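hiii, so i know i said id send this last week but things got crazy w the move. better late than never?? heres the sequnce for the chain we talked about at the cafe, plus the structure i predicted for it. fair warning i was half asleep when i ran it
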Amino acid sequence: MDNRIITPLNTLNNKAPIVAFHGTADPIVAIETAMKHIKILNNNGYKANLNKYEGFKHEIPDFMKKDYIKLTTNTFY
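okay and structure toks below
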């Protein structure tokens, strides 16, 4: 997460919540990195959440897709 991106966005009044989906065994983007990014967002006034998927790598399994669909349909309908 680059503060050159976060700082200007932090000035917006109506920020949408941010939800990340991440496997704990991801060899490409470590879960610690995702957690750090969520913390940076929250520290800058964003509402950010991290959904962790134990044992999953850099992939999007069907149940993660279902969680995403559930989240978006509950948010907008």
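btw Helices lie at 3-9, 31-43, 62-76. thought thatd interest u
miss u guys!!
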